Amino acid sequence: MVNGNEAKYTHLESLTDEQLCVLLGEGNRLAEEILVARYHRLVRSCARPYFLAGGDSEDILQEGFIRLFGKLKSFKGEGSFEGWARRIFV
Protein backbone atom coordinates (compact mmCIF):
# COMPACT_ATOMS: atom_id res chain seq x y z
CA MET A 1 0.00 0.00 0.00
CA VAL A 2 1.25 3.47 -0.84
CA ASN A 3 1.43 5.87 2.08
CA GLY A 4 0.23 9.47 1.82
CA ASN A 5 3.66 11.03 1.23
CA GLU A 6 4.52 8.62 -1.61
CA ALA A 7 1.19 9.36 -3.30
CA LYS A 8 1.77 13.12 -2.97
CA TYR A 9 5.31 12.77 -4.33
CA THR A 10 4.11 10.74 -7.34
CA HIS A 11 1.44 13.34 -8.08
CA LEU A 12 3.95 16.20 -7.87
CA GLU A 13 6.39 14.49 -10.24
CA SER A 14 3.89 14.93 -13.07
CA LEU A 15 3.79 18.73 -12.62
CA THR A 16 5.85 21.16 -14.69
CA ASP A 17 8.83 22.93 -13.19
CA GLU A 18 6.88 26.17 -13.15
CA GLN A 19 3.98 24.55 -11.27
CA LEU A 20 6.43 23.10 -8.77
CA CYS A 21 7.87 26.58 -8.22
CA VAL A 22 4.41 27.88 -7.31
CA LEU A 23 4.08 25.08 -4.76
CA LEU A 24 7.57 25.79 -3.51
CA GLY A 25 6.57 29.40 -2.92
CA GLU A 26 3.74 28.05 -0.76
CA GLY A 27 6.26 26.10 1.33
CA ASN A 28 5.93 22.64 -0.24
CA ARG A 29 9.17 20.78 0.58
CA LEU A 30 8.38 17.85 -1.74
CA ALA A 31 8.23 20.25 -4.69
CA GLU A 32 11.68 21.51 -3.72
CA GLU A 33 13.06 17.95 -3.58
CA ILE A 34 11.68 17.15 -7.02
CA LEU A 35 13.18 20.28 -8.58
CA VAL A 36 16.59 19.57 -7.07
CA ALA A 37 16.45 15.97 -8.34
CA ARG A 38 15.40 17.10 -11.83
CA TYR A 39 18.30 19.51 -12.12
CA HIS A 40 21.02 17.27 -10.73
CA ARG A 41 22.56 16.84 -14.21
CA LEU A 42 22.52 20.59 -14.84
CA VAL A 43 24.32 21.29 -11.58
CA ARG A 44 26.88 18.59 -12.36
CA SER A 45 27.52 19.96 -15.87
CA CYS A 46 27.87 23.54 -14.62
CA ALA A 47 30.23 22.47 -11.82
CA ARG A 48 32.44 20.34 -14.09
CA PRO A 49 34.72 23.21 -15.27
CA TYR A 50 35.62 23.95 -11.65
CA PHE A 51 36.89 20.46 -10.78
CA LEU A 52 40.58 20.39 -9.99
CA ALA A 53 42.87 17.39 -10.35
CA GLY A 54 43.29 15.90 -6.90
CA GLY A 55 40.46 18.00 -5.48
CA ASP A 56 37.20 16.75 -4.06
CA SER A 57 34.60 16.91 -6.80
CA GLU A 58 31.81 16.44 -4.28
CA ASP A 59 32.65 19.80 -2.68
CA ILE A 60 32.21 21.59 -6.01
CA LEU A 61 28.99 19.72 -6.70
CA GLN A 62 27.69 20.60 -3.25
CA GLU A 63 28.41 24.29 -3.88
CA GLY A 64 26.37 24.06 -7.09
CA PHE A 65 23.43 22.58 -5.21
CA ILE A 66 23.68 25.23 -2.53
CA ARG A 67 23.53 27.89 -5.22
CA LEU A 68 20.49 26.30 -6.89
CA PHE A 69 18.79 25.64 -3.56
CA GLY A 70 19.36 29.20 -2.39
CA LYS A 71 17.88 30.70 -5.56
CA LEU A 72 14.86 28.41 -6.04
CA LYS A 73 12.43 30.71 -4.29
CA SER A 74 13.47 33.70 -6.39
CA PHE A 75 12.03 32.23 -9.61
CA LYS A 76 9.02 34.40 -10.47
CA GLY A 77 7.70 32.62 -13.55
CA GLU A 78 9.33 34.77 -16.19
CA GLY A 79 10.28 32.37 -18.97
CA SER A 80 11.07 28.72 -18.48
CA PHE A 81 12.48 27.42 -15.23
CA GLU A 82 15.21 25.50 -17.04
CA GLY A 83 16.46 28.63 -18.81
CA TRP A 84 16.39 30.53 -15.54
CA ALA A 85 18.27 27.74 -13.74
CA ARG A 86 21.00 27.74 -16.39
CA ARG A 87 21.47 31.50 -15.99
CA ILE A 88 22.14 31.31 -12.24
CA PHE A 89 25.34 29.38 -12.96
CA VAL A 90 26.73 31.90 -15.45
Q: How do you describe this structure in short?
A:
The chain has 90 residues and is mainly alpha-helical. 66% of the residues lie in helices and 0% in strands. It has helices spanning 4-13, 17-25, 29-38, 40-47, 57-71, 81-87.
Keywords:
single chain; about 90 residues; mainly alpha; about 65% helix; globular
Helix content: 55-70%
Dominant shape: globular
Distance between the termini: 44 Å
State the secondary-structure class: mainly alpha
- Poorly predicted runs of 5 or more residues: none
Strand content: under 5%
Number of helices: 6
Overall number of strands: 0
The mean pLDDT is 81
Rg, alpha carbons: 15 Å
Largest sheet: none
What string gives the helices and strands in order? HHHHHH
Topology:
Elements: H1 4-13, H2 17-25, H3 29-38, H4 40-47, H5 57-71, H6 81-87
Helix pairs in contact: 2-3, 4-5
Describe the structure.
This protein is mostly helical and 90 residues long. Helices cover 66% and strands 0% of the residues. It contains six helices and no strands. It is globular, with a radius of gyration of 15 Å. The mean pLDDT is 81.
